[in-house]
Recover the amino acids of this structure.
């Protein structure tokens, strides 16, 4: 049972994080196309934001098994 | 034969049997040794190409490009006074990058081990605290955690902010190390899972994941050093604060 819950939780986390990453990439590309001269700064900010969003998924992967005692 | 067997056994032990979080203790040091040897050989070769005119040797050229890249990033994020942090940032970048690259060729890597990443994160965050104390004084650094100065009964809120900021400061270690560990170890797990998928038809499908893993290696080394730069700039940036806030408001108005 807990295995099923774990799978569902991982799937939900992946869904949310994918939407978040997509939004970041979408807006960063829009910003880059509007201001090509600011590409360097936008890329830096984008990478930082990507890292923070990615961390949510990793936290889910590593914290959920511990809390479910799998 | 015995020699090879011993080395292979050690690599194997480092890969799988060590425990839930990557390499065993001895295996971690084997891999760390590999990383240090690669770095030493590469930098030694780069040093031999040094001269006063044009660098002809490719290792020297690559190291120069790496230095310029790190310098751009550090000075761009921290500002003019960030030049003195370049040695730290560059050392972190090279250690993490070579450790990640090792994971493409061997069963595991130093950065696929949570304890190694936690050590790196502790070094980075500890240095950030030290720099904050040097820039603002010990009391100034810790009063930074309490947020803006509030009077009267609002001191209670300051106390709460202080506790939350303290927790988030500790969580920076966890987030830095867990991000690196999760990405590298996750790449391994993905390759293993895809190899199992292709085991029936004898095609190592996981092999086609290697370019993605290479990208992950570069990006993770970049992100670790980038975040270190950001944390350093957060504790030492007080003189340009008004300037940056002006920019933010301008961007928000548009």
């Amino acid at each position: 049972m807990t295995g099923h819950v774990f799978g569902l939780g991982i799937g939900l986390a992946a869904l949310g994080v994918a939407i978040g990453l997509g939004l970041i990439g979408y807006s960063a590309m829009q910003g880059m196309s509007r201001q090509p001269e600011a590409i360097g700064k936008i890329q830096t900010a984008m990478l930082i934001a990507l890292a923070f969003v990615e961390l949510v998924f990793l936290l889910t992967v590593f914290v959920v098994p511990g809390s479910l005692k799998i | 034969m015995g020699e090879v067997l011993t080395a292979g056994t050690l690599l194997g032990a480092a890969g799988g049997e060590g425990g839930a979080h990557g390499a065993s203790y001895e295996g971690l040091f084997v891999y760390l040794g590999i990383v240090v040897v690669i770095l030493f050989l590469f930098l030694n070769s780069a040093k031999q190409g040094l001269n006063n005119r044009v660098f002809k040797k490719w290792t020297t050229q690559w190291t120069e490009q790496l230095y310029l890249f790190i310098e751009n990033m550090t000075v761009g994020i921290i500002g003019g006074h960030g030049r003195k942090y370049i040695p730290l940032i560059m050392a972190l970048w090279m250690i993490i990058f070579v450790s990640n690259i090792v994971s493409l060729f061997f069963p595991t890597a130093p950065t696929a081990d949570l304890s190694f990443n936690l050590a790196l994160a502790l070094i980075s965050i500890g240095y950030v605290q030290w720099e904050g104390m040097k820039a603002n004084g010990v009391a100034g650094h810790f009063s930074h955690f309490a947020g803006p100065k509030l009077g009267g009964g609002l001191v209670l809120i300051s106390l709460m902010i202080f506790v939350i900021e303290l927790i988030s400061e500790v969580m920076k270690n966890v987030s830095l190390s867990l991000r690196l560990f999760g990405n590298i170890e996750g790449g391994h797990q993905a390759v293993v899972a895809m190899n199992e998928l292709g085991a029936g038809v004898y095609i190592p499908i996981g092999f086609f994941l290697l370019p993605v893993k290479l990208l992950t290696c570069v990006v993770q080394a970049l992100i670790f050093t980038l975040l270190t730069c950001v944390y350093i700039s957060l504790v030492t940036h007080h003189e340009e604060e008004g300037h940056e806030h002006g920019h933010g408001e301008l961007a928000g108005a548009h």
